[in-house]
Amino acid sequence: MAEETHIRKTPRATWHEYAGGLYFVTIVTENRRHHFGHIINGTMEYSAIGNICDNTIKTLSKYYPYCRVINHIVMPNHLHMLIYIDENKLPFEMRTKEIVNTDTFGRNDKGIQCRGWLSHIISHMKSYITRESRKRGFTFAWLGRYHDHIVRGKDDFENINNYINNNVNSWEQDCLREEE
Asked: CATH number, domain at 131?
């Protein structure tokens, strides 16, 4: 009997190539552990890992000149970012990458890679933060995936930006909050 293989469904929008655009991204720590610090008297107080995370986000455009973090917040067990990828600033060879393989996972009907540069940035950012944390002796891990939302219009942008700005103040009601 042939062994069944599980094909994991991609959480990315298959109709969008993720080569450019404005995205709201949420990334959560494994088991929602409070690795990044604590909220004390309405202020996020970063731990050492929280500082690594915050500084990494602030310097993303140094390493990825086609990306700009418009706003972000690092919470005790997750982070939110509004991130813009300027498709016109991507090096030409990165704009569209033809796929030779014929399977359909992560590809649109044109055979163009859908994983896109958002996943590329997030993957490298998560790896870097994990590596730097472990170098300093911390046990740290992320939840395997992340959530993204394609920002659609000015009202959507303003709602998300306000959510990020007020996230610390609404920590008591946050759906990602779990007691440590």
From this structure: 3.30.70.1290
Report the number of distinct structural domains present in the chain: 1
Using a 10 angstrom Cβ sphere, with 0-12 exposed, 13-18 middle and 19 or more buried, the burial of residue 91 is exposed
- The C-alpha atoms of residue 94 and residue 51 are separated, in whole angstroms, by 31
pLDDT at 100: 38
Instruction: Tell me the mean pLDDT in the region 78-104.
Output: 67
The answer to whether the beta carbons of residues 42 and 165 sit under 8 Å apart is: no
Examine residue 13 and state whether it is found in any structural domain, yes or no: no
Q: Given this model, what pLDDT does residue 120 score?
A: 84
Residue 130 CA to residue 98 CA, distance in Å, equals: 31
* Radius of gyration of the chain, Cα coordinates, nearest whole angstrom: 18
Highest mean pLDDT among 4-8, 42-46, 103-107: 42-46
